[in-house]
Amino acid sequence: MHFPTAIALAALLAVPAAAQYASVTDYLPAGCPTDGSVDITEPVQAALAAEAALFFPGSNSSDSPRLYAVRAGVLETQPGARIVFGPNARLLRLPSEAR
Q1: Exposed site from 10, 54, 57, 66, fewest CB < 10 Å?
Q2: DSSP letters of the chain?
């Protein structure tokens, strides 16, 4: 086995299987749009606090990406958290609220 192949294989083995990732959509209110029109900071933060491995599902079309709208500067993850975005999935940064 070539050295770069061994590194790639080790990296692949270190990533949990998709089934080990919780979906952020499990934390969103029923029927919540993922088009960036709704601030979902609180449910996303709840998911980040509860899960060590979190998946943000995407879409099959770059013309209609899944946008997860969150306020800037307020999200915190667990130490060592893993976050994966599906194709055409993005966090949409909203302006922070005045303090």
Answers
A1: 10
A2: --HHHHHHHHHHHHSPPGGGSEEGGGGSPTT---EEEEE-HHHHHHHHHH-SEEEE---S-TTS-EEEEEETT-----TT-EEEE-TTEEEEEEPPPP-
